[in-house]
Amino acid sequence: MLFASVGYQVMFYDIMPEQVKTALTNTEQELENLEAKGLLRGKLNAVQQFDCLTGTSDLKTLAKGAMFIQECIPERLDMKQSFYKQLDEIVEANTIISSSTSTFLPSLFAKDLKHKENVLVCHPVNPPYYVPLVEIVPSPWTKADVITKARALMDEIGQKPVTLTREIEGFALNRIQYAIINEAWRLIEAGILNVKDMDSVMSDGLGMRYAFLGPFETCHLNAEGITNYLERYSKTIHSVSETMGPPPVMGESSTAMEVAKQLDDLVPLDKLPERRLYRDNCLMQLSILKASMNEKK
After folding, report:
1. What digits encode the pLDDT tens for the residues 11-41?
2. Domain made up of 3-163: CATH architecture
3. 3-state secondary structure the chain
4. Any idea where the domains of the chain sit in the sequence?
5. What is the pLDDT of residue 36?
6. Cis before 127 (ω within 30)
7. pLDDT of 122
8. pLDDT at 93 over 80
9. Which pTM value belongs to this model?
10. For 23-56, b where at least 16 C-beta lie within 10 A, e where not — what string?
11. Spatial separation of the C-alpha atoms in residues 52 and 43, rounded to whole Å
12. pLDDT tens column, 216-271
């Protein structure tokens, strides 16, 4: 939908024709719903955006004339390697091939390709319609102009790209996210907090702050600039960090069972769809607020 919102011709692909048909039907309904709520992105109306969409189950049809392909297949390396090998045989020389992966380094599925210089990761954050960040991650062979073009495209469709200078495990977002999860887990494992209060630390504390400002600007504003902040707090940050311990092995530990029990009490499994809808509605309203606030800067 994001590419269609600015008028690009978009082709859905799946090996199963019924999946393509379902995707088109669901997208048409979603565009209509967004338009009815006044939340449709772009200058085109819902009908015009849907007219930009087609679908196919033929990979050659998908690849023909494509300027940019965004791969979103399941997070299995063997499947990605197989798909990229097939695509590599038929794709045109200047087509950018981008993966949505949040897990795999692009070199892992690009290394044996003829067109490996055109492959990179553009990792969106779910749900991308309301959470605009896209991590652009090159492989060691990705051409500089491919990175530039991919970032320009993400800007054009209204996303907020960040470009990593090289590939690294977890990219940026998940490295930070995992650091948070690890320390949250350690605090629960040590009996310092329960799950509900731990989540409140983020949702009612850090999360509210970081929804508008990143960690470095937050530090900058919490003192008389970052230099003053480091003078005041850097030793404390270091000493506290030394107490955090190694990354926990979560798995089937007793802590895992206790976390699952507490979460099941807070959000029973049959309530997950309802809670996801709440999450998406909150993100939708937050995106509206951020857009409004940024206009006033």
Report:
1. 999 999 999 999 999 999 999 999 998 889 9
2. 3-Layer(aba) Sandwich (3.40)
3. CCCHHHCCCEEEECCCHHHHHHHHHHHHHHHHHHHHCCCCCCCCCHHHHHCCEEEECCHHHHHCCCCEEEECCCCCHHHHHHHHHHHHHHCCCCCEEEECCCCCCCHHHHCCCCCHHHEEEEEECCCCCCCCEEEEEECCCCCHHHHHHHHHHHHHCCCEEEECCCCCCCCCHHHHHHHHHHHHHHHHHCCCCCHHHHHHHHHHHHHHHHCCCCHHHHHHHCCCCHHHHHHHHHHHHHHHHCCCCCCCCCCCCHHHHHHHHHHHHHCCHHHHHHHHHHHHHHHHHHHHHHHHHHHCC
4. 3-163, 172-262, 267-296
5. 94
6. yes
7. 98
8. yes
9. 0.93
10. eeeebeeebeebeeeeebbbebebeebbebbebe
11. 13
12. 999 999 999 999 999 999 999 999 999 998 999 998 789 999 999 999 999 999 99
Any idea which residue has 């999360």 for tokens?
207
Confidence band (pLDDT; 50, 70, 90) for 5? very high
* CATH architecture group of domain 172-262: Orthogonal Bundle (1.10)
**Residue 37, token pair as written in the block:** 């709520």
